[in-house]
């Protein structure tokens, strides 16, 4: 259905859809391990079945025609190389990836027509941008025969987001999108990119994502600011202990050395990074032991730390989490993703799903004034051709 929709649009815009291929790359939801991926810590995300679709065909000239079905706008670039930096609009993500490929010696040998459609709600914190980056890299590899692995697609996506879009994100989102596996979460050590898949089919419970539909301003600058606070704290700690990242520290080591961090706020930021990493390791262990209850408790503790020490939650998200914690049958609930709005992720027993939606929805309407959206998560695979 989605394929037909894209092909139809493609034909409408570019005359016909002969030889056009349709591709997909997923968004992600992170179960636990938040703001650890740029601190050499662990994360535990899974790919979703929603993401970004692209219908693409090479052109005979050097032009790039990028059309977004979401914005109903066309971006035309008259050369595959020139003017990349000057244009500031929605085409930034695909153009950034093309720019990053070219920087690695993989120059597109011709232009391309590309129609894009994403079904991740914008600004929901479910990685619509990472899915678009991975999708673009996946299409370039397929159309131009570039020799890159899926891990490379993730790294190139992150590189372009850092250096073209100015958002200093870690590797989690792009990695989850590029390496996703159906019904599995990815336990990734961001210090060296070693990872393992962990089955996440919960018996008698489901993963529910709740969208606050809030996107606060200055998200990127607040994010970059957290990142530099952690870097400063790391440099201070490195004067007394031999570590590469905050993820190298146990809680005990952190407590022993934390006094060297000169600023109270910075100390709290570093504390979150260290404790959250250890929580993530423990949570995956709990899941392996079939101890979903403990996994849920660690999710709750993650939220408290993100709210109080890392300060990336907001009042609307706290309303969702507080209400979720009160529902009988909720195993765990927390903010997910970069923060300052977006979504929560909860594990909810099957029989409690209806009351979860009702009670959390009611509390949100009462305190925030409108309904949140609920999605029951299906864990999907990485990028593919339709
Ligand atoms: C955003 C970033 C990720 C990660 C999360 C927080 O999604 O893109 O790299 O840092 O925030 O865990």
Bound ions, cofactors and other small molecules, one mention each = alpha-D-galactopyranose
Count of runs of 4 or more consecutive helical residues = 11
Shape: globular
Query: Over all CA atoms, what is the radius of gyration?
Result: 21 Å
- How far apart the termini lie comes to 10 Å
Strand proportion: 15-25%
Give the % helix. 40-55%
Which strand order do you get reading across the main beta sheet? 5-4-6-3-1-13
β-strand number: 13
Largest sheet: 6 strands, mixed
Uncertain spans:
84-88
- Oligomeric category: single chain
Mean pLDDT over all positions:
94
Q: Helices and strands, in N-to-C order?
A: HEEEEEHEHHHEEEHHHHHEEHEE
Structural class: alpha+beta
Written overview of the protein:
The chain is of the alpha+beta class and 386 residues long. 42% of the residues lie in helices and 23% in strands. Helix 3 crosses helix 5. The protein is globular, with a radius of gyration of 21 Å. Mean pLDDT is 94; it is low at 84-88. Alpha-D-galactopyranose is lined by residues 34-35, 37-38, 169-170, 172-173, 337-338. Alpha-D-galactopyranose (GLA) binds at residues 34-35, 37-38, 169-170, 172-173, 337-338.
Topology, element by element:
Layout: H1 2-14, E1 21-30, E2 42-43, E3 45-58, E4 64-68, E5 73-77, H2 92-103, E6 112-118, H3 128-144, H4 150-163, H5 172-179, E7 184-189, E8 194-199, E9 205-215, H6 219-238, H7 251-257, H8 264-288, H9 292-308, H10 315-326, E10 330-336, E11 341-349, H11 353-368, E12 373-376, E13 384-385
Parallel strand pairs: 4-6
Antiparallel strand pairs: 1-3, 1-13, 2-7, 3-6, 4-5, 7-8, 9-11, 9-12, 10-11
Helix pairs in contact: 2-3, 2-4, 3-4, 3-5, 4-5, 6-8, 8-9, 10-11
The chain binds alpha-D-galactopyranose.
Alpha-D-galactopyranose is lined by residues 34-35, 37-38, 169-170, 172-173, 337-338.
